[in-house]
């Protein structure tokens, strides 16, 4: 410590010595120069200031840095909280999703269990039914076999036959009946057999039984009759066996045996053997021989596999000892015991088993071969499709036929394998398809999930999907008897298909090999295909003509028989065009199926659908739905209609004329609608499109585009037609590029293409808003209308107004008025006017926002905001209509439209370029909205002044160099201006040139400068005479219009019927009006940018809220009733009184008033003046005929008439002055009392802070000061000379 202290002392001494030396030096330098001293002081002070500034700057930087860090910290905390909230929301959503997934899985598991239980119950019922049928069949066969084997002992004697009927007629009739045996005739045939003696007709009966055309269901009845014959006649069985052998020998020579007859005959002889009519040796040998012949001739083609399956199914258990796998599984699963075959021993059954298993082996080999061949065809077709986009018609048809035959063969093999209890062969799948072509669309197994999915699906929306897919199931509502014709036709088609199986089998041999398919692929070209189907077209045309002839014949028959039904059908067809929605067309389909389902009526319906008027394209979807609804019950309607449409389409394509485009479009649109209902095949629709593309010109372009716009999306997004449709679309676009088409055709082609295959578009993420904001938007943008304004207002009042966020969002939605429909803008203004009574500041903010948006639109001046600016201008006008703003705001905005950014010297401005005329449209929008209320008072004169300036602006725009003869001024602007001015000032004389408009503006400005006293003496002298005349005319007119101006407030305020308007004197009112006009015009004259001085000046808006609302009550009704009663009594009392007519002065005509005021011209002499001063002027009225004549009389004051009149005027003048003084005293006393009451109320409660003090208008008493001069007609209005 001492060392440190010593050191510090030394340092202090040094500092003191240095300071003293400096003082000495400065003392030496001080007298040298005072100027250097001042410089040093200034340097020191500047250094100190710099140091202070640097410290202050440093301190500010640190403060800003600290604030920034604090802000970033808060932001990070908010982000962290937000991330935590988002994480919680995600976890909750995941939890909810997981619960929903678990619930869905649980429901699926329950549904699967229910389905399994239902399947088990169904399987059990089927097994028990199978078990019961097996025992019943076994028991009946066993009993019948025992009867037939013991028939020799029980046959009747000769005496028995003598009692029976042996007549030729009945016996031959019975024998004929045996040729058409059915199960329904069992009882009748049995009763006939028991009463007839057929011992002489056994051979004929045997022949009839063998030749009978039986069905499988009729075999049991035939076996029963044969048993009756065998039990009565001993020679029947040998004759029957001999006849069957002859029949089978004759069948060997047939080239194409009848498969159904062969199936029935084989089962027949098997049943005869089982029931004991034939002995086992005879019957089994015959069965084995026939079965062996069938199998040996059918080892390759397997055309008779259905015969073998039928034999195994009905007789295999007894003849061959077969136990089907289905029976085995049912016995093992449910513990059922099925009857064993006891009729024929196993040694005799073994040859049949071996024969059937050999046939099954050959059948499996055939199946494997066809499977490999089908895979080869599919592989080649895939290559063709992926390279060319489509298959030829022959190849496609060939593939379909081969695939159909393969599916039948597969089903028969499965059935035979189940009956023989054998396993199905393994059919290897072709794995090279995916390796060759990669993942793609499986054309031959369409609809696999996950392979083909375009965004949006096949249909545009859910309604379209329901319309085209969900049809009414008529079979659930309509009895089956009503559509029996459709079942018959379907059975006939099945029979025809079975008859064609032989040909199909032969055709399958001609399937081309793999090498031939590859060669065909190399030579295939999609553009070189010819238009086929010529022969098919002719055949279809012949079918249609036959159908129409049949229809005509049936119509002739109905004309004579069913006239009532014909009337019903005609009425139905007449009402069909009125079915313009889904319910009506479904009801019509049900009605037709219930009441009018005949062949001729279906033809009539097809003809009515086909001949739909070409203008009624809206009916085509509903007609197509009608056809699709009727299709399950009446398939011929769809077939006939499609055939007619095909013929009509080919007719128009081949004719190649350039007329009837509407009919052509109707045809292709109908085809497209039927395609979407799957009534018209997709391949035929694409073939039609290909025919149009082959000659892509003129009407074919429109037809192709119409077809694509109708069903192109469906075809492109359906897996089985996607590739071919995409190839045709690309071909169409290539032709469009290669051909020089008209612009209209180019647009049509592009629209059709992009409708089918729209370009990829990024998904727009919809902004998520809080529920309260969504509710506010719903109320304003959806629910609000002219009818629901009161309801929306009630809902708005319930919003949480204490929350600033909700209030600000509502204000923002109201300011953004362009989000609303243009015709509903007045509803928002009405809503705001009602809302201001409860939330005053909302109206202020909305008006401020609208004015700011209008000003911002003029500053930015971008065309994309034009619609927004128009909506804001419209909204401002509606706000004036609903008394939310004053007329001064409207006129200030109108003047800003024609002055803001407009250069006075006429040069171009970026805010208002020469070619921009949008401000004219804005002015017209505002005037069209609220200009009709500027029709009286000061607002009328303001509008007249504005229209003068507006015309100058318009003519200035028209006179610019951008408008030439080649580029004239838009005529729609002229029409818009004429419409607006016709509405506001129909009698106004418009300017014809820019010079005239400038002259009118100059005259108007000079007039107001003179009134303000700012003009030169010369101008005042020139205008003195005019002003004097105007003043005289105003005084003359005031006599007749005295009370008019006081009762009506100028502008829109008078139109809205404000309570208790000011009743100022006429002179004061005129002065106020002139001051307002002068303010408006001087603002424009002094500086066009004066609008931007302060925000307070621009936003001086008076918000007028609604007053108290009237609430109806019972007292009001009582008061009105009492008042009406009192008035009625008063009228009745006054009706009896005599009416006295008061003698009033006759009004002086207007044309004489000015003469009375001015007086006669002086004649130059004092004597004349004194004579006129001593007289009083009267006007004498005379009538000459129908014409009135007036004469001015100067009556001397000394006369009795003039003296009395003069004294009466003086008395009235004194009375008016006295009443004027009393009224003014009363008014002053009332104002003083009101002022004292206001001070007392303010003293009793603390004054609330008013943030909008500058915006509020001054306090004015509702009644104001009355104009005493006007009331009492004082103030020196009359002068007597």
Kindly summarize this structure in a few lines.
With 1281 residues, the chain is an all-alpha fold. Helix 14 (346-388) runs antiparallel to helix 15 (393-420).
Mean of residue pLDDT values: 76
Estimate the global geometry from the Cα principal axes: elongated
Low-confidence stretches: 1-33, 433-454, 496-542, 557-561, 1017-1107, 1160-1170, 1247-1256, 1276-1281
Strand content: under 5%
Number of helices, where a helix is a run of at least 4 consecutive DSSP H or I residues: 53
- As an assembly, this protein is single chain
Radius of gyration: 55 Å
Helix content: 55-70%
Notable traits:
mainly alpha, 2% strand, disordered C terminus
Written account of the structure:
- The protein is an all-alpha fold and 1281 residues long.
- The longest helix has 116 residues, at 34-149.
- It is elongated and about 175 Å long.
Helix and strand layout, with pairings?
Elements: H1 2-29, H2 34-149, H3 151-154, H4 158-162, H5 168-177, H6 186-195, H7 202-211, H8 219-232, H9 236-251, H10 259-274, H11 280-297, H12 305-319, H13 325-334, H14 346-388, H15 393-420, H16 432-437, H17 462-469, H18 474-477, H19 484-499, H20 501-508, H21 514-523, H22 534-561, H23 563-575, H24 582-595, H25 599-610, H26 620-630, H27 635-655, H28 661-676, H29 682-694, H30 699-717, H31 719-738, H32 743-756, H33 771-783, H34 789-797, H35 804-815, H36 825-835, H37 840-860, H38 866-881, H39 887-899, H40 918-930, H41 937-958, H42 971-984, H43 994-1012, H44 1017-1040, H45 1044-1047, H46 1052-1055, H47 1066-1086, H48 1095-1098, H49 1114-1135, H50 1150-1158, H51 1166-1173, E1 1175-1184, E2 1187-1196, H52 1200-1244, H53 1268-1272
């Amino acid at each position: 410590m001492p060392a440190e202290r010593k050191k510090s002392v030394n340092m202090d001494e040094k500092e003191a010595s240095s300071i003293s030396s400096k003082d000495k030096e400065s003392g030496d330098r001080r007298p040298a120069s005072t100027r250097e001293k001042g410089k040093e002081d200034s340097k020191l002070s500047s250094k100190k200031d710099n140091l202070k500034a640097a410290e202050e700057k440093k301190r500010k930087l640190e403060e800003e840095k600290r604030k920034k860090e604090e802000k970033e910290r808060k932001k990070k905390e908010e982000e962290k909280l937000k991330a935590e909230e988002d994480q919680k929301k995600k976890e909750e959503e995941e939890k909810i999703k997981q619960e929903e997934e678990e619930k869905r899985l649980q429901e699926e598991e329950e549904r699967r269990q229910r389905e399994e239980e239902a399947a088990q119950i169904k399987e059990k019922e089927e097994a028990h039914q199978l078990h019961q049928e097996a025992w019943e069949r076994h028991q009946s066969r066993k009993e019948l076999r025992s009867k037939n084997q013991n028939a020799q002992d029980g046959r009747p004697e000769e005496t028995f036959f003598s009692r029976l009927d042996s007549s030729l007629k009945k016996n031959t009739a019975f024998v004929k009946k045996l040729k058409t045996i059915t199960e329904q005739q069992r009882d009748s045939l049995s009763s006939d057999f028991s009463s007839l003696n057929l011992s002489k007709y056994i051979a004929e009966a045997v022949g009839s039984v063998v030749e009978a055309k039986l069905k499988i269901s009729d075999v049991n009845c035939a076996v029963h009759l044969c048993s009756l014959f065998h039990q009565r006649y001993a020679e029947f069985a040998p004759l029957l066996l001999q006849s069957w052998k002859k029949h089978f020998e004759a069948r060997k020579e047939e080239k194409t045996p009848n498969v159904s007859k062969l199936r029935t005959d084989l089962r027949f002889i098997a049943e005869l053997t089982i029931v004991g009519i034939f002995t086992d040796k005879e019957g089994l040998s015959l069965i084995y021989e026939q079965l062996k012949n069938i199998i040996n001739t059918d080892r390759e083609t397997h055309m008779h596999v259905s015969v073998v399956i039928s034999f195994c199914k009905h007789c295999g258990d007894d003849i061959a000892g077969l136990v089907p796998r289905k029976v085995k599984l049912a016995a093992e699963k449910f513990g059922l015991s099925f009857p064993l075959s006891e009729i024929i021993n196993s040694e005799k059954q073994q040859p049949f088993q071996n024969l059937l298993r050999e046939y099954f082996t050959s059948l499996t080999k055939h199946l494997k071969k066809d499977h490999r061949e089908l895979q080869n065809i599919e592989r080649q077709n895939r290559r063709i499709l992926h390279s060319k986009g489509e298959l030829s018609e022959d190849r496609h048809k060939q593939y379909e036929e081969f695939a159909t035959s393969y599916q039948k063969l597969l089903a028969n093999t499965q059935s035979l394998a189940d009956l023989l209890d054998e396993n199905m062969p393994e059919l290897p799948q072709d794995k090279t398809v995916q390796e060759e072509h990669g993942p793609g669309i499986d054309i031959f197994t369409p609809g696999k999930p996950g392979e083909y999915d375009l965004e949006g699906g096949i249909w545009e929306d859910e309604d379209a999907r329901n319309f085209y897919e969900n049809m009414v199931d008529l079979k659930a509502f309509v009895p089956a008897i009503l559509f029996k014709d459709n079942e018959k036709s379907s059975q006939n088609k099945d029979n025809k298909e079975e008859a064609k199986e032989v040909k199909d089998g032969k055709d399958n041999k001609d399937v081309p090999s793999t090498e031939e398919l590859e060669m065909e692929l190399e030579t295939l070209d999609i553009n070189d295909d010819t238009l086929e189907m010529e022969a098919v077209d002719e055949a279809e045309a012949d079918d249609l003509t036959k159908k129409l002839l049949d229809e005509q014949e049936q119509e002739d028959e109905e004309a004579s028989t069913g006239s009532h039904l014909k009337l019903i059908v005609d009425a139905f067809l007449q009402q069909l065009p009125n079915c313009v929605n889904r319910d009506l067309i479904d009801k019509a389909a049900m009605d037709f199926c219930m009441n009018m389902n005949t062949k001729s009526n279906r033809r009539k319906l097809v003809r009515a659908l086909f001949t739909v008027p070409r203008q009624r394209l809206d009916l085509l979807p509903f007609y197509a739905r009608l056809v699709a609804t009727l299709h399950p019950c009446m398939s011929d309607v769809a077939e006939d209609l499609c055939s007619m449409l095909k013929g009509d389409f080919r007719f128009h394509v081949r004719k190649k004329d350039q007329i009837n485009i509407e009919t052509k479009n109707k045809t292709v649109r109908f085809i497209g609608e039927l395609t979407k209902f799957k009534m018209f095949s997709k391949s035929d629709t694409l073939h039609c499109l290909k025919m149009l593309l082959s000659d892509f010109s003129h009407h074919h372009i429109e037809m192709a585009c119409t077809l694509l716009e109708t069903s192109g999306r469906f075809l492109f997004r359906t897996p089985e037609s996607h590739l071919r449709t995409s190839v045709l679309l690309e071909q169409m676009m290539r032709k469009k590029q290669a051909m020089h088409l008209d612009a209209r055709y180019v647009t049509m082609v592009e629209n059709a293409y992009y409708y089918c295959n729209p370009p990829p578009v990024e998904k727009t993420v919809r902004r998520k808003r809080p529920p309260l904001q969504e509710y506010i938007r719903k109320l304003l943008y959806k629910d609000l209308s002219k009818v629901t304004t009161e309801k929306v207002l009630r809902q708005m009042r319930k919003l949480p107004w204490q929350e600033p966020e909700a209030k600000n969002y509502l204000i923002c939605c109201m300011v953004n008025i362009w989000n609303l429909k243009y015709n509903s803008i007045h509803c928002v203004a009405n809503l705001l006017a009602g809302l201001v009574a409860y939330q005053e500041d909302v109206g202020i903010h909305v008006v401020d926002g609208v004015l700011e948006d209008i000003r911002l639109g003029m500053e930015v001046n971008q065309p994309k905001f034009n619609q927004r600016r128009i909506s804001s201008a419209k909204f401002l006008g509606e706000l004036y209509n609903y008394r939310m703003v004053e007329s001064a705001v409207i006129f200030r905005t109108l003047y800003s439209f024609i002055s803001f950014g407009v250069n006075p010297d006429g040069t171009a401005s970026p805010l208002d370029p020469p070619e921009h005329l949008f401000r004219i449209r804005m002015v017209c929008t505002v005037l069209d909205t609220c200009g009709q209320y500027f029709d009286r008072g000061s607002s009328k004169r303001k509008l007249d002044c504005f229209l003068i300036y507006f015309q100058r602006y318009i003519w200035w725009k028209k006179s610019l160099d951008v408008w030439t003869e080649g580029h004239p001024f838009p005529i729609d602007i002229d029409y818009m201006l004429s419409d607006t001015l016709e509405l506001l000032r129909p009698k106004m004389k418009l300017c014809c040139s820019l010079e005239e408009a400038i002259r009118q503006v100059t005259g108007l400005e000079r007039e107001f400068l003179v009134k303000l006293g700012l003009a030169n003496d010369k101008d005042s002298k020139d205008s003195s005479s005019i002003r004097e005349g105007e003043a005289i005319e105003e005084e003359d007119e005031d006599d007749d219009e005295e009370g008019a101006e006081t009762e009506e407030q100028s502008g829109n305020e008078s139109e809205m019927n404000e309570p208790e308007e000011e009743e100022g004197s006429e002179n004061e009112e005129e002065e106020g009006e002139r001051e307002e006009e002068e303010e408006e015009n001087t603002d424009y004259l002094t500086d066009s940018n004066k609008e931007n001085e302060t925000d307070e000046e621009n936003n001086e808006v008076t918000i007028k809220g609604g007053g108290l609302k009237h609430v109806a009550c019972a007292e009001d009704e009582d008061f009105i009733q009492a008042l009406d009663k009192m008035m009625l009594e008063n009228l009745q009392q006054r009706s009896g009184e005599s009416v006295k007519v008061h003698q009033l002065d006759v009004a002086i005509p207007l044309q004489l008033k000015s003469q009375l005021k001015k007086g006669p011209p002086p004649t130059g002499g004092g004597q004349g003046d004194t004579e006129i001063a001593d007289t009083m002027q009267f006007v004498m009225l005379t009538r000459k005929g129908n014409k009135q004549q007036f004469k001015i009389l100067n009556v001397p004051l000394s006369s009795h008439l003039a003296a009395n009149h003069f004294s009466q005027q003086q008395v009235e003048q004194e009375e008016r002055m006295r009443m004027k003084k009393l009224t003014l005293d009363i008014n002053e006393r009332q104002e003083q009392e009101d002022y004292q009451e206001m001070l007392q109320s303010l003293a009793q409660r603390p004054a609330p802070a008013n943030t909008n003090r500058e915006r509020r208008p001054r306090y004015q008493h509702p009644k104001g000061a009355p104009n005493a001069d006007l009331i009492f007609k004082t103030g020196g209005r009359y002068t007597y000379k």
